[in-house]
Amino acid sequence: MSIVNFGSINIDLVYRVDRFVQPGETIHALDHQRFAGGKGFNQSIALARAGASPHHVGRVGADGRWLVDLLRDEGVGVEGIESCEVPTGHAVIQVDAQGENSILVHGGANREISNDQLAGACSALGGGDWVVLQNETNAVAAVMKAAEGKGSTIVLNPSPMDDSVLQLPLHAVDIFLLNRAEAEALSGENEVERMLDALRERYPRAAVVLTLGDRGVRFAFDGKKIEVPAEPVSAHDTTGAGDTFAGYFLAERYAGVEPAPALRMACRAAAFCVTRPGAAASIPRRAELTRGQ
Predict the structure, then answer these.
(1) Residue 236 per-residue DSSP state
(2) Distance between CA 274 and CA 214 in Å, rounded?
(3) Best CA proximity match to 81, nearest among 73, 92, 72, 90
(4) 59 alpha carbon, distance to own chain's centre
(5) Per the count of CB atoms within 10 A, which of 53, 84, 86, 238 is most buried?
């Protein structure tokens, strides 16, 4: 049994600004830093720091080999990561004075995962495995179909949300990890309770996790709903908070923890994350969350 993350690996270029740049204007950045990132990368780091032992399947260019080393150093299995001639994916991230972010992503090598690479990784899947997917790599539908055929648990975080997500075999998803915009796009509703009800009706086999920023998180599955508040903190940088939440929640659930305490642990981890700069660099280790308890 294992958690296999078919995920993106990016170089994050982070620019701190007073406010987001507007169309047609040029502004001065207050600061610039380079971080490891990508939703897949971040979630693998969060899974590992939460105590799981994930395996990552992805692709980088020659400029991204240091990212593979970082994953390996964190205890992530990297045998499923290949190199190619296409440059590593990257993101340009603005972070404003309130800690909110605006992100532009270029897929790069993340969109070049080969059929042979995918076939090799999918052939090893089994019924006890959990497959984690986002929408920053190619062949998401193919992986979902393969995982469904193996009886693996399928986790989907459909970010970035676009029309291609609606073409995926969403009936096969066991756990949806959604923010408000993603839930609205999938449900066609714009109010939280109606979103949850519509998603549960449309995808009855799936657990739905809906993150709402400083309003906490909602969970719906098998006729039950759970609400967990966010931990109050002063946000420095919200980049990576959703990925931190995802990794911790999945690690807890994979270990057999019930939904409510798993949600609370994930909210606590996300709260720690937003007090620090960067994405993967800001993800806390489990010992930090339990210190003093």
Answers:
(1) S
(2) 11
(3) 72
(4) 17
(5) 238
CA dist., res. 147 & res. 94, Å (int): 36
222 is catalytic: no
Catalytic residue among 12, 129, 237, 243: 243
Helix, strand, coil shares, percent, the chain, to 5: 40, 25, 35
Q: In the structure encoding, which two tokens stand for residue 286, read together?
A: 């489990």
For residue 292, pLDDT over 90 is answered with: no
Task: Lowest mean pLDDT of 171-180, 254-263, 279-288, name the range.
Answer: 279-288
According to DSSP, residue 24 is labeled T
Quick one: residue 269, left, alpha or beta (phi over 0 = left, psi -120 to 50 = alpha)? alpha
CA atoms lying within 13 Å on the CB side of residue 224: 7
Query: What pLDDT was estimated at residue 138?
Result: 95
Cα separation of 222 and 19, whole Å? 43
For the record, the structure tokens of 278 come out as: 């960067």
